[in-house]
Write a structure and sequence with these properties.
Helix content is 50%, strand content 12%. The longest helix has 33 residues. The strands form two sheets. A seven-stranded mixed beta sheet has the order 3-2-1-4-7-6-8, with helices on both faces. The protein has a two-stranded antiparallel ribbon with strand order 5-9. It folds into two domains: 128 residues; 240 residues, Spore Coat Polysaccharide Biosynthesis Protein SpsA, Chain A (Alpha-Beta Complex), CATH 3.90.550. Helix 3 links the parallel strand 2 and strand 3. By secondary structure, the protein is α/β, with parallel strands linked by helices. The protein has 14 helices and nine strands.
């Protein structure tokens, strides 16, 4: 029994080391920086380049009334046209887009494309983006930039201007914003901050933004992409079959030794997608979770072991240590009470480190400090989503935009 106690104590020590490593990592992936709105914008350029806003859309008739007007009314001093690609929608997405443009008096700046048949080997969203890239309106010159944005992303009126200013100032081939996700319902408060937190652990933004670092990352909801860079990469054919299109796009661009940038948005770029239930978030995550592991079951086992050590061990040690201590105080235990209390203390220290590291995430989303202690539960649920993703891959069940 004492050997088991020491083993638990050692597990607690390993968990503490993991959280200390994350806390002391040079890239500080836990601090939710950089945030675009917190940085003063660059000065205006001598000439504002043309931009084509590309909006891949499939059954987005409910989202577009809340997002498309903002794109058509961008306070951008240069020329900005909007191309909505209606990819096999069955809800009248194209008609809704045209009506919105008419209501905004912007028919001349909106082009609605009926999506062509999906070619073999392409993912639906990527093919829609490629059609938007290829589109050339009569009498218009090719733009310098493409703004790739999802149909459920709402942009503040100065969003495009700010993105272009940054790209022009720092010669960015790719400039991306991680849209602020909705965090209102109970499931969202529990699982949305960890979603961004885990992304930052996998793709620390300071590393991605460092030209000398091979790591690349972007967020597909908002990407300002230089035309020359994507043409040099061979168009979107370079990521034609990638479900995780954003990260792979950033890799293709960074391989050209071009500068890229990813930053969080405090609200200028905002996702309107609602996740009122656990099932909606579960479905969203499992779509790409096993893809992120490159369909490797060895990586899956490693990820599950890591999740257990990092998130499950700390609260488990607190519970086991306190229960064993109480049992010893009552006279039924064979292990000295001080040893079992040490196990509980080790677990609590690891859990406290976890809460401290996670606090910037909950603070970013305006949540109370108490939510910082819920990360173990979120970690377990994300582990379940990853397992489900792997099982669905085994059985050949796929969900998402294909």
């Amino acid at each position: 029994m004492i050997a088991l106690v020491y083993a638990l104590y050692a597990l607690g020590g390993l968990s503490i080391l993991v959280w200390l490593y994350i806390l002391m990592h040079p890239a500080r992936p836990w601090d939710f920086q950089p945030v675009a709105e917190d940085i003063p914008p660059p000065p205006d350029p001598e000439r504002w380049p043309d931009v084509r806003i590309v909006v891949p859309s499939r059954n987005e008739s409910e989202s577009l009334p809340h997002t498309l007007p903002a794109l058509l009314k961008q306070a951008y001093p240069g020329r900005a046209e909007v191309v909505v690609i209606d990819d096999r929608s069955t809800d009248g997405t194209a008609d809704v887009a045209r009506k919105i443009a008419a209501d905004c008096g912007a028919q001349d700046r909106l082009h609605v494309l009926v999506g062509q048949l999906l070619p073999e080997g392409w993912v639906g969203k990527v093919w829609a983006m490629e059609q938007g890239r290829r589109h050339e309106a009569e009498g218009s010159a090719p733009p310098k930039y493409y703004l790739l944005t999802d149909a459920d992303i709402r942009h503040a009126e100065g969003s495009l201007k700010r993105l272009v200013l940054e790209s022009e100032q720092d010669a960015l081939a790719l400039n991306s914003r991680m849209a602020r996700l909705r965090c209102v319902s109970g499931p969202e408060r529990l699982l949305i901050p960890p979603f961004v937190f885990f992304f930052n652990l996998l793709y620390p933004m300071r590393r991605a933004n460092n030209p000398a670092d091979p790591l690349a990352a972007s967020a597909g909801g908002c990407v300002l992409l230089e035309r020359e860079a994507i043409e040099k990469a061979g168009g979107f054919a370079c990521i034609q079959g990638e479900i995780i299109d954003d990260v792979n796009l950033s890799r293709a661009i960074k391989k050209q030794k071009r500068a890229i940038r990813l930053a969080l948005s405090r609200g200028d770029v905002e996702s309107l997608r609602e996740y009122e239930t656990l099932d909606t978030i579960w479905t969203m995550v499992r779509r790409t979770a096993f893809t992120e592991l490159r369909y490797s079951f060895a990586r899956l086992l490693g990820a599950m072991a890591g999740l257990m050590l990092t998130f499950v061990v700390p609260p488990l040690l607190v519970a086991l240590g306190l229960a064993a201590s109480l049992y010893g105080v009552l006279g039924g235990g064979e292990v000295p009470v001080f040893l079992t209390l040490l196990v509980a203390a080790h677990g609590f220290f690891a859990w406290g480190l976890m809460a401290a590291v996670y606090r910037p995430a909950t603070e970013f989303f305006g949540l109370s400090r108490a939510w910082s202690w819920t990360l173990p539960l979120a970690g377990v649920l994300y582990g379940g989503m990853t397992l489900d993703s792997a099982l669905r891959h085994l059985t050949g069940i796929q969900r998402g935009w294909r």
